[in-house]
Amino acid sequence: MRARFPAFVILLCVAGGAGAQDLATTCQVASTYDLTVRPDALVFERADAAPRTVRMHDGALDTDGKQVPLRPDEQDRVALFERQVRNLVPMAKAIANDGVDLAARAVRDEAATAAPSAVSDGELDRVLNARVADIKRRIAASQSTRDWQEDAMRAYAQEIVADVGPILTRDVGGQAMELAMNGDLQGAAALRDRVANVTTGGQARVVARLEAALKPRIQALCPSIGQLVELQSGLHDAAGRPLLLVERGG
After folding, report:
1. 15, 178, 235, 250: which one has the fewest Cβ atoms less than 10 Å from its Cβ?
2. Can you list the residues of the chain whose pLDDT is less than 70?
3. How many degrees, rounded to 5, is the angle at CA 215 between CA 92 and CA 5?
4. How many degrees, rounded to 5, is the angle at CA 191 between CA 189 and CA 195?
5. What is the number of structural domains in the chain?
6. pLDDT of 191-217, one tens digit each?
């Protein structure tokens, strides 16, 4: 069964921010569930083992379509668990939005090193701004962590890096051709190598910058995430199995 970082915090990793494994290490918690945050309920889902579906709303708990009888104190804990998750989501999305901005700035810095003129004419900024706006729209609209698993996050980071590739290639290509025609083959090759360095190694450098910038903010949420482990303690599914939506030990 594959462990995932808790669904309500996976949003923090958008655009290649700190990886899920690093986050699990940071807060020492993990989950095997995907989460969908609906207006009427939280829905946790997984395919590997029962309970496959867990639904929470206003102190009520259903697992695999069956209502779980709860004492009043258990209802209170379920309600608090739901409220805690809903409170975490906007904070996570805010960090994710900042992560997108940080990623775009990091990519711009990479591009400025490889091809300064591509930055100075404004084309690169227009492309980056459009990509940032698109990813932020996806963050705002997302209700399910299926949109933000590790593979998806890496893809978003690659989208940002890949956007600048054609711009740099066009910008440097003309300069390199001119150098080559004037007999400076070494200079032409050096220009092309600078672009290749951005498109092939740029993502790793962008991710490293995001990890350094966002990790302290992620750590600040760890106590709230840890409280979820305590709130679910003693709760069971409809078949009497302990409810383990969030688990310590990453």
Report:
1. 178
2. 1-26, 114, 146-154, 157, 169-182, 184, 187-188, 190-203, 249-250
3. 55
4. 110
5. 1
6. 666 666 666 666 677 777 777 887 888
**Cβ–Cβ < 8 Å for 8, 88:** yes
What's the CA gap between 160 and 150, in Å, rounded? 16
Question: Is 2 part of a structural domain of the chain?
Answer: no
How far is residue 9's CA from residue 25's CA, in Å, rounded to a whole number?
13
The label of the residue with tokens 């949420």 reads 221
Q: What is the pLDDT of residue 179?
A: 55
Question: Which pTM value belongs to this model?
Answer: 0.74
Total residues found in the chain within this entry: 250
pLDDT at residue 133, as a whole number: 93
For 128-158, b/e burial (b = at least 16 CB within 10 A) is beebbeebbebbeebeebebbbbebbbebbb
Instruction: Tell me the average pLDDT of the chain.
Output: 77
Q: How far apart are CA 243 and CA 197, in angstroms?
A: 48
Question: Residue 250 is encoded by which pair of tokens?
Answer: 């990453």
Structural domain contains residue 1: no
Is 129 among the domain residues? yes
pLDDT in tens, 23-41: 456 677 778 888 899 999 9
Range of the structural domain that residue 143 is part of? 7-248
Asked if 1 contacts 49 with a C-beta cutoff of 8 angstroms, the reply is yes
